[in-house]
Amino acid sequence: MVEKGVSPTVETYNLLINGYGQRGHFVRCFEFLDEMDKAGIKPNVISHGSLINCLCKDRKLIDAEIVLADMIGRGVSPNAERYNMLIEASCSLSKLKDAFRFFDEMIQSGIDATLVTHNTLINGLGRNGRVKEAEDLFLQMAGKGCNPDVITYHSLISGYAKSVNTQKCLEWYDKMKMLGIKPTVGTFHPLICACRKEGVVKMEKMFQEMLQMDLVPDQFVYNEMIYSYAEDGNVPKAMSLHQQMVDQGVDSDKVTYNCLILAYLRDRRVSETKHLVDDMKAKGLVPKVDTYNILVKGHCDLKDFNGAYFWYREMVDGGLLLNASMCYQLISGLREEGMLREAQIVSSELSSRGLNN
């Protein structure tokens, strides 16, 4: 371009900074800023903004703040979007002190905080267990005429779910419905999790409300519901819901199969767990330690030590290790069952890991 006598513009450099920044080549980005200086091309808010965004995504918060200071030093006024990038990066790193420092700085600079600003801070506070402060910020936000949206409510519900406060989760859920703000499928993730401690009936009620809103449950929701039925040993409900999941075109994952295996074991249907594992493998889902732990523990709890040893053997032969406490339980059960050879094998394999029985 330069060789042909075409001079690069600020837009040209902006594209280069963004492109190199997305690839993590930040040294080159700073070189472009220097080149712009030498060529008498003044960087604009996009030049710095692209670099700040890329640095934030790469978790280089200090460097991003240096770029912000450089931007201001060059007389380029940052906007709310630039501050939002820094606030979001700070929150994602749980650096809430920095997030609120940027928030205060933007307000003092006469830049109005946006809905995105408030949502990011509320979410950051909630994820770090500071739900009361998140609620206070919500009230301040509403007082400034910044209307909350579904993301705001989702963040508060998630925060209270993380703090294991089901009552507050449901209160905020009711508030958003009263205001005509329709929850998303994602909103039901923390709601259903929060309702788990209230029992499967409460979870079912939430699940039905979701369906009445014409929302299609996703993999996470189905897995949570199937797990709740598995915990109750309600195989018919678990299998029925799994079939509904399949009919809706929602893929089953390893968590789904773990839940179904647990359901069968709770219902003492040990022979059918093999079919589930085979089906799981046929779909390209390779059982890992968590699946085998469920299988071995489930068979041990049912005093089916022959079955427990079968799964233990498959697990070890596949290069996976059962946790020590389960090994001890299995060895004890095998001895009680008179399967002394198998007990000795497990004991020897445990000793080879430096653990004594």
TrEMBL record:
Q: What species does this protein belong to? A: Glycine soja
Short name of any one Pfam family annotated for the protein: PPR_1
Q: What is the lineage of its organism?
A: Eukaryota, Viridiplantae, Streptophyta, Embryophyta, Tracheophyta
Xref: InterPro entries? PPR_P_subfamily, PPR_rpt, TPR-like_helical_dom_sf
Gene3D superfamilies this protein is in? Tetratricopeptide repeat domain
Q: Can you tell which superkingdom this protein's organism belongs to? A: Eukaryota
Q: Which family does it belong to?
A: Belongs to the PPR family. P subfamily.
Q: Which UniProt keywords apply?
A: Repeat
Where are this protein's PPR repeats? 9-43, 44-78, 79-113, 114-148, 149-183, 218-252, 253-287, 288-322
- Recorded protein name is Pentatricopeptide repeat-containing protein, mitochondrial
